[in-house]
Amino acid sequence: MLRYEVHPGQSDTLRLARSTAPVPGPGQVLVGIQAVSLNYRDLLVSRNTYFSPIPAGRVPCSDGAGRVIAVGAGVTGLAVGDRVASLFFPGWQGGAPTPAAVGEALGAELDGVLAECFLSHERGLIRIPDEITLAEAATLPCAGLTAWHALFEAGSLTPGQTVVLQGTGGVSIFALQLAKAAGARVIITSSSDAKLERARSLGADACINYRTQPEWDKEVLRLTGGHGADVVVEVGGPGTLERSLNCVAVGGRIAYVGVLTGLAGQASPVMLIPRLSTINGIFVGSRAMFERLLAALVAHKIRPVIDQEFAFDQAPAALARMESAAHFGKLVLRVG
To answer: For 39, 75, 214, 222, which has the most beta carbons within 10 A of its beta carbon?
Structure first.
């Protein structure tokens, strides 16, 4: 089989390699991968600038979907032919996170799915409803589940509340679709008027171009009559977190998701005190959360937004598009 490997320190960090397809042992399942979606994290892994060092030969990417092609002894929940997606944290099945549950994730601590075949314990896979295509399913394990966790698991979004979203990448577009299905008001930011128009077509109630309105936090306050945002999905970090703190409502919360603007910052948590607001760290989610996300997608007929699809051998080009931030929604690699 063919698979991609990360080789830190080499000129060609991401390499296409050939290896023998694994044979599933007890409790294991072999999946023929048909689609893989990219996250910003995969760009960090491919450059070895992720939070933890990446060992040479690691297979990147956490988000894949395909069909079961073989099962090992003792597997009871899945059968050959089943349509499945990967779990970002195979060990986090439900309940509160523990160090063990979130200590190993696909594509960094564990081999990921950017390969023609993927071997997993059956607990690391989830069956996909017929209403969702495999390309769409591949967008869910990280971005889709992160958006769901941010809106409905860390706190329960209710109709009429205001959500602020940053940019038009995978997490933000999923959050837009899910928030509108829940009856919330959505304000979204972008540097592109064209992307903002696309967001408006998906239901965004107000759009802010942060190039022409760099003090977008003040615009959020104006748009909400001084109330602020009940929920801010913070995907940036330094530079954006400060503004999120400025515009979160009294009693509101910031779902801290990403590090698109880096790791260092100057935001002061003292700003939370007068607003009695909170910051929730969001790191994807559990199998139980994933099951609730899938049910919501089917119930509301939500289709993930795929910006562009690439062939398997175009992984470097797909990562380059990710880096350019030109995409709207998700980038998908067709494998099988």
So the answer is: 39
Name 279's bridge partners.
254
262 falls in which pLDDT band (50, 70, 90)? very low
HEC profile of the chain: CEEEEECCCCCCCEEEEECCCCCCCCCEEEEEEEEEECCHHHHHHHHCCCCCCCCCCECCCCEEEEEEEEECCCCCCCCCCCEEEECCCCCCCCCCCCCCCCCCCECCCECCCCECEEEEEHHHEEECCCCCCHHHHCCHHHHHHHHHHHHHHCCCCCCCCEEEEECCEHHHHHHHHHHHHCCCEEEEEECCHHHHHHHHHCCCCEEEECCCCCCHHHHHHHHCCCCCEEEEEECCCCCCHHHHHHHEEEEEEEEECCCCCCCCCCCCHHHHCCCCCEEEECCCCCHHHHHHHHHHHHHHCCCCCEEEEEEHHHHHHHHHHHHHCCCCEEEEEECC
pLDDT in tens, 136-193: 999 999 999 999 999 999 999 999 999 999 999 999 999 999 999 999 999 999 999 9
Q: What superfamily in CATH does domain 2-141+303-334 come from?
A: Medium-chain alcohol dehydrogenases, catalytic domain (3.90.180.10)
Domain 155-281: which topology?
Rossmann fold (3.40.50)
Closest CA to 14 of 305, 258, 322: 322
Domain extent listing, the chain: 2-141+303-334, 155-281
Radius of gyration of the chain, Cα coordinates, nearest whole angstrom: 20
